[in-house]
Design a protein that fits this description.
282 residues; CheW-like_dom_sf; 2 domains; Chemotaxis protein; 10 helices; five-stranded mixed beta sheet; alpha+beta; 10 strands
Length: 282
């Protein structure tokens, strides 16, 4: 059995190659229609056949990768702004001979937790985030020296140390922030996977993050999920029905997906038209 792996957020999913008609780049040019299914993102023509497209990230992760990326970008921008504001305030105080300054940097420890606990499957982004530590810790050490010089009324040394921070640590941190934001933006190039039930006609389109690789698997290598999902799993029928098993990869598992049962049976039963039954739109 030949399968193709796709990335969907933090998960890897597998589809049978026979269930796939085509993959194409998602250009955010879908036709929108009213639909209470939050994973439905619009309709796209496949060979002049209007085909519903669903965000697999919302189905499997309860959040689209685009939304998840936007959240991380917001965090990065917030911390970038906080650090700059913190330094500007500190610099103003250090240049004020009458200001009393302590070396308490407790307010910045949340930032350390943020970049040290940052979790991503993007190796380039992971490396960039890890590189924040060295210039940030160096900045804190230089700040302590500047505060000590200020308390000793050595304002010439204070100015020299502030310039050192601006020319070195701050520039490094700014570049790393910009690099991290760029990697998040450039790495996200989602695609639509058009699936089929009969090998000829489109069934649904699934929005995924990217293609991973091809693998060959025997049926006996696919581990069933029946027993696993009986205890402690809160899954809606749609998600549970479409997950057909686990496939062992080098570091983790991939979830085998059956796109033909992506909709709840009750949704199909309630539909009156043949077209609606086929696509599960309303």
């Amino acid at each position: 059995m030949e399968l193709i792996n796709f990335k969907v957020g933090c998960k890897t999913i597998s589809l049978k190659i026979l269930d796939i008609l085509l993959t194409e780049r998602f250009d955010n040019n879908l036709t929108t229609l009213p639909n209470n299914n939050k994973s439905f993102i619009g309709v796209k023509d496949y060979m002049d056949i209007p085909t519903p497209v669903f965000d697999l990230g919302i189905i499997l992760n309860n959040i689209s990768t685009e939304q998840s990326n936007a959240h991380v970008l917001k965090q990065l921008r917030t911390w970038q702004e906080k650090l700059l504001n913190w330094f500007n305030t500190l610099q103003s105080n250090l240049l004020n001979s009458s200001a009393s300054i302590s070396s308490n940097d407790a307010e910045l420890q949340d930032f350390v937790l943020f970049y040290k606990e940052f979790n991503t499957d993007n190796e380039d982004l992971k490396l960039t985030m890890s590189r924040l530590n060295e210039p940030f810790q160096s900045l804190l050490e230089t700040v302590k020296e500047a505060i000590s010089a200020h308390n000793q009324s050595d304002y010439k040394q204070v100015s020299a140390l502030l310039e050192k921070i601006k020319r070195s640590n701050l520039i490094q941190l700014e570049r790393l922030f910009e690099s991290a934001k760029e990697q998040i933006t450039l790495d996200y190039k989602p695609i639509i996977v058009f699936t089929t039930k009969d090998g000829l006609n489109p069934h649904v389109g699934l929005l995924v993050d990217k293609v991973e690789d091809n693998i060959d698997y025997k049926k006996e290598d696919i581990k069933p999920l029946d027993k696993l999902t009986e205890v402690g799993f809160d899954l809606d029928p749609q998600t549970k029905n479409m997950m057909r098993g686990l496939i062992k990869l080098s570091q983790k598992h991939s979830v085998l997906i059956d796109p033909s049962v992506i909709f709840k049976p009750t949704q199909l039963e309630e539909s009156e038209s043949e077209e609606t039954q086929a696509y599960g739109l309303f």
